Amino acid sequence: AHVKLYDLHPPIDDFRAEALTGLMKQQKTISPKFLYDKSGAELFDAICTLDEYYLTRTEMAILQTYAHDIADLISDSVLIEFGSGSSQKIRILLDAIPRLQTYIALDISKQHLQESCLNLAEAYPLLETIAVCTDYTQPIDFPNIPSIDKKRKVGFFPGSSIGNLEPEAAIEFLKQTGQLLGPRGGLLIGVDLKKDRTILEPAYDDRQGISAAFALNLLTRMNRELGTDFNVDAFTYRAFYNPVGRIEMYIVSLIDQVVHLDDVEIPFWKGETLRTEYSYKYSLEEFRDLARAAGLQPNQVWTDPEQLFSVHYLSV
Ligand code: AVJ
């Protein structure tokens, strides 16, 4: 198997500087991108298999059920996945489009990217598999790839990852993605739907405590990589649905305490929170409006029978 790799050398995040800035704010916050070190990525994979976390299995079922309708829309295109991870969901589409010529995976983690693309190339030997190591959340200076030059490009952005962005930033991301895909392009995007909080909240605060461990792992990571002295046992985790339309996730201090980062003292009062994530939820119409605000045209949308999750097809 053969995979062509383009390394665009995404700038490595300055975790120390970003953590310091975030911890000095009135509302302490750290970007969710820092949740995914090795243990974090493993914990997230575990979340995706939880009974309470309906998102992953529901999206996969939608892709399976409508694979042929989706295939009709994208069969003569180059497929470009944003944040390809382990490149599992794409297999559902590839199985429905055996003639698909080219798949391009974009991911920030070079090692993960290379491994997953090699596995994929072995399973789909007729597919031209191209790996691009880049931070897709930043404007991308896309490499010149001769075989895709004049072809129609369709993006794939599953998992409701867009939910981590505030609506303004989501619009910016969609605009930028539309530009990258170019005229005639399309975007297949998974979006979690608004629903009763009794379903939403357990998905982000499960009985086994995996969601809590996923968030609290950020403290362990800071202790290891930045030399902070967080006592992880002195913090807990809380997630709730804010009716403005998002799940909010926090690490909560159980006591008054002071944590050190280099020579900086970071006080926490009892009950003070450190925000780890927002996860926005959209009704079908809300997301179609968001797409229009980004200059994209909403087309087909597929959902599961319980209306838990949606997959939208937008055109540029
Ligand atoms: C990766 C952003 C889609 O919001 O559902 C899951 C992240 N955090 N449980 C989500 C997450 C805690 C997830 N996304």
TrEMBL record:
Pfam families: Methyltransf_33
Ranges in coiled-coil conformation: none
Gene3D superfamilies, sorted: Vaccinia Virus protein VP39 (3.40.50.150)
An example Gene Ontology molecular-function term: L-histidine N(alpha)-methyltransferase activity
Positions of the Histidine-specific methyltransferase SAM-dependent domain: 15-315
E.C. number: 2.1.1.44
Superkingdom field: Bacteria
GO biological process: methylation
Transferase listed as a keyword: yes
Enzyme class: transferase
Secretion signal, residue range per the UniProt entry: none
InterPro entries named in the record: EgtD, EgtD_Methyltrsf_superfamily, MeTrfase_dom, MeTrfase_EgtD-like, SAM-dependent_MTases_sf
UniProt keyword Endoplasmic reticulum present: no
Keywords: Methyltransferase, Transferase
Protein name as it appears in the record: L-histidine N(Alpha)-methyltransferase
Record organism: Thermocoleostomius sinensis A174
